Amino acid sequence: MCSIIGYRGDVSASKILVSGLRRMEYRGYDSVGVATFSDSQIRVKKGVGRVDQVNNRSNLQTLPGNIGIGHTRWATHGRVNETNAHPHMSSSGEIAIVHNGIIDNYKELKEILQGRKYFFKSETDSEIIANLLQYHYDITKDIKRSMIKTVRELKGDYSFVAIFADGTLAAARFHEPLIIGVGKKGFFISSDVLGFIEHTDEAIYPDNGEVVIINFGGIELFDFAGNPVMHHLTKISKEFADVYKGEYAHFTLKEIFEQPNSILRAGDNSRTEIEAFVSAIRDSRQIYITGSGTSYNAALVAKHLFLKYGKKKIDAIISSEVRFYPDYFDNQSTLIALSQSGESADVMEAVKIAKDSGAQILSIINTMTSSLAQISSISVGLNCGPEIGVAATKSFTSQLSIIYKIADMVCDKSIEFDLKKISTAMSKVLESSSRIQKTARVLKHASDIYIIGRGIHYPIALEAALKLKELTYIHAEGLPGGELKHGPLALMDSNSFVIVINPNDSTFNDTLTSAREIKARGAKIIGISDIESDVYDHWIEIPSINESAYPFLEIVPIQLLAYYAALENETDPDYPRNLAKSVTVK
Ligand code: F6R
Predict the structure, then answer these.
(1) Pair 181, 193: CB distance under 8 Å
(2) Ligand 1 mean position to 392 CA, how many Å?
(3) Ligand 1 center to 67 CA (angstroms)
(4) pTM across the whole model
(5) Which of 145, 199, 331, 520 has the most CB atoms around its CB within 10 Å?
(6) Per-residue pLDDT reduced to its tens digit, 77-120
């Protein structure tokens, strides 16, 4: 949710911190701050807004010193204002911290520390870390001991970096990401390799429950009991260098256009895992599939495929709902978890509940170093490269790619899909982007958009609605075509827009009938189909392909429609308001 970063090295810290934060802004972007150490003093600058806005206003980059920490926030505790922005200082000003995650017991700790005359300025849970560290440091005068005492008292999920008044950086990781970059010009501590990728491609991945101290003597890692731990240096894969927008106006557009290639790469690094995945599914008595948001919509596609082609029942459960059904799983069941980030708190909670009941955990993930990968018995990688746009695009079609491969191997009937053909057809859809841009103009003043699809196109309608909501802030709702007459038809009038997902397959005639019913109520219809019809006010043509492959083709024009409609409405497609890419809070 938030991003944290730290640097200690030979060059000016603030510039490095600001550029790292800019790259990690996708994780949270309502406020920003940096603290550096020089001349025995910690100085902080922070403010509300995006990294560039705050930097232009407050010159974060001019803070002096070669040691520092930084943060971008996605508010959980306390309003979006300058006081609540990180870094937070201890009351004596000798320690500053940046934090990602949630401290569950901050209220109790705050009362205790207030009783000991430590004072607080913000409404955040995070500030407790600064004062708790300060309290233990005041007693022990030892950074390692104060870190260990602090992490033992904190309850919740967190990673944080602290800067002490002697220039030492200290960090801890507990169920939130933390990576150390080891470069020629110094050490970096970050929530994501994107925070330091332009400086080094060598990293250390601390395990959960570990502490890092970086000072003039170098780097030291130990567990929460204080025992030293060793880690190998890992070479970061080259794909992470691909984090520039290039010729594209936005990351979202770039990522939409990457799809003809990224669907082909999905699962490429995981051939053995795919085979193991398939036999685990074959051997399971009961299979469940889970995810949040877009990943859940991909899970619904899996459910349809297994039912249609394998007569195999998979139960799809929204991750955040799992906690209300704790007896779902047993030691004969398998839970497949889908997640781009591999860090979504709701998905992790669902997986932990299933694992505690003895279920086997399989996962499909983009970030193979994530917490979800660590907890799974088998993980297959999306391999689509970093997805920076907050709204998921290429990760969705890569999830489909892997789901189709696996379903094809498990199901009795062949799904008959050819990824190469799909990729070529996707490129054709992308070639018509300027026509889609024109169609997007009609959505400029829309207040409600409905998307209908039947069968396997219903999850695509849900995904379409999610994209339109996130990117345009227009109310959008995905519906199964057959359900209109059971209620939603009451909403249709001349102000409504309806996107009809209607490829030439077994759903075609029924969906066309639904479109006519809607049209009769005066709504405007955008048809996504390989066959033109007089019922469409606007027709977005997709190439004809075999029945099972249409979902790949129909989501792409809707991603583009949402992107261009966002531009019409002057919203930022890469960073929709109130959202964050990696939702690590429940
Ligand atoms: C939608 C979107 C979110 C994510 C959801 C799960 O465009 O990006 O709905 O799909 O937060 O994220 P992951 O897949 O990282 O678990």
Answers:
(1) yes
(2) 6
(3) 34
(4) 0.81
(5) 199
(6) 889 999 999 999 999 999 999 999 999 999 999 999 999 999 99
